[in-house]
Design goal:
Aspartate Aminotransferase, domain 1; 5-stranded antiparallel sheet
C-alpha cells in the first residue's frame, strides 16, 4: 500500500523563479533587531575561545552599516538588512565559520570561500591556522554591498 501511495503522488517540479521573473528571489527571515540579546547570549556559550573568535568577526559584520540587524537563526547569529540575511557566524568543536548567504555570487580572488551549494559559502577559521583576514574582511563588505543591491532590485 505504501508503494501505491508513493507511485500515485504527483511529481513536484521546482519553479524557476529567476527564469520566470528575470530576477533572483531574496531569501528572507524574521526581521532582526539592532542588538539582539539572543545573539549576545550565543556569544557567551561554549567553546569560549571559538565564540570569542566568532564575536570578533561578527563585530566586523555589524560595522558594515547602521542598517545591519541581527538575530539567531538555525542556531547561530546572522546579520541582515531588513529581513534579508547576508552573513552569519557559527562555532563548532574545533573551528569557526563565517558564512555568506549569497557567497556563490561573491568574487573571491584569495580563494578562501568553501562550499559547493547553489548560494551559500563560508570561510573556515581554525585556531592557530592561517587566515587571510584582509580577504575575509573584503568578503564581508562585498556580501553587505551585494544584499543591498539585491534589495534595491527586488
Amino acid at each position: 500500500m505504501v508503494a501505491m501511495k508513493t507511485a500515485a503522488r504527483a511529481r513536484r517540479l521546482p519553479l524557476d523563479l529567476k527564469g520566470m521573473t528575470g530576477r533572483e528571489e531574496v531569501f528572507r527571515v524574521a526581521v532582526g533587531k539592532k542588538r539582539d540579546p539572543a545573539v549576545e547570549r550565543w556569544f557567551a556559550g561554549d567553546p569560549a575561545e571559538l565564540r570569542t573568535t566568532a564575536a570578533e568577526w561578527f563585530a566586523r559584520i555589524r560595522d558594515c552599516g547602521d542598517d545591519v540587524l541581527e538575530l539567531v537563526h538555525d542556531g547561530c547569529p546572522i546579520a541582515c538588512i531588513e529581513d534579508a540575511p547576508f552573513a552569519y557566524v557559527n562555532a563548532f568543536k574545533s573551528h569557526v565559520n563565517v558564512g555568506f548567504f549569497n557567497g556563490a555570487a561573491l568574487e573571491d580572488p584569495a580563494k578562501i570561500l568553501l562550499g559547493s551549494g547553489k548560494r551559500m559559502r563560508h570561510v573556515k577559521i581554525v585556531p592557530g591556522g592561517a587566515l587571510n583576514a584582509d580577504a575575509l574582511a573584503a568578503l564581508i563588505g562585498a556580501a553587505y554591498a551585494d544584499i543591498k543591491a539585491r534589495l534595491s532590485e527586488a
